[in-house]
Amino acid sequence: MSRVIGVFSGKGGVGKTTTAVNLGVALTKLGKSVILIDSNVNTPNVSLHLGMNFTPFTIQDIMENVPYISQAMYIHESGLRVIPADFSLKDRHVDISELKNHVHKLAGDADYIIMDCAPGLGTDARAAIEACSEYLIVTNPELPAVADAYKAYKAIKIINGKVLGLVVNKVNNDNYELQSGEIEDFFNEKIIGIVPEDRNVRASIQNRMPVVMHKPNSKAAKAYRKLAMHIEGAKEKTFSDILLDFLSFDRKKMNKGTAL
Ligand SMILES: Nc1ncnc2c1ncn2[C@@H]1O[C@H](COP(=O)(O)OP(=O)(O)OP(=O)(O)O)[C@@H](O)[C@H]1O
Ligand SMILES: [Mg+2]
Question: Which domains does the chain have, with CATH numbers?
Answer without folding.
Answer: 3-259 (3.40.50.300)
